[in-house]
Fold Sulfurtransferase.
Amino acid sequence: MFKVTLSEPVVSVDWLYRQLKAENLIIFDASIPKITETNNTVSKDIQLPNAQFLNLKECFSDVSSAFPNTIPSAEQFQTEARKLGVNADSAIVVYDDKGIYSSARVWWLFKTFGHNNIAVLDGGLPEWLAQNYPTETSNSNAKPIGDFETHFNPDNVTYFKDLEKLSHSEKHTIVDARSAARFYSQIPEPRAGLRSGTIPNSKNMPFEVCLENGKLKPKVELQEAFKALSTKENTVVFSCGSGLTACILDLAANVANYKHTTVYDGSWTEYGTLTQ
């Protein structure tokens, strides 16, 4: 048996296939439906070998919040991670059935709560299937309770109370991951009752800009895309509809060597509601 350490935020399906026997490897399926689509999963019946389903919506979000996908407390996160067998030395690879979608949120959450030995599977389940790697029928693959302890990183999270100051700061760049049509109020928001609009002085970079066929674009292309929006010296604040796809931009920025990044957790759902 051997152990692995994840030095990059994204790993390939080829790499993961070669590491399947690592004793500290934990694989999470973090698939969720898109709010803008229905019946859009690749399959609910198969998973990667020895994978566990990570319930992002119910276990790794604050379900008591008025807004979707709200970051949980450190206590909740630690409890739920331990239930899935996460230990201090665990090497976590997280995937979803869209390619890269909700998996980026889980990567961001673990980094925010102090576990850096985690990576997103580039291309997710679709890429795994495309390469004809083995799958199994969906099951729990329950693990012994883990010993993971949270160490919260406050720099990873931006809150509503910070937005007024940050939106007028020359040292911060706010980047919105929603589609251009939503950003420019050309179509209504998908959540009923939520007004259209943007955070003052924010810029638009739809998360799809960073992806090609469900995988992250090459590093050089990502660097060029972010260079058009912000310098590396600025702190880049990522927002979206509910804090989910903002994490895709955060992941891509990390690959592009942007070190000063943060996610506005409440995103437009919170901002648009509280500033009506």
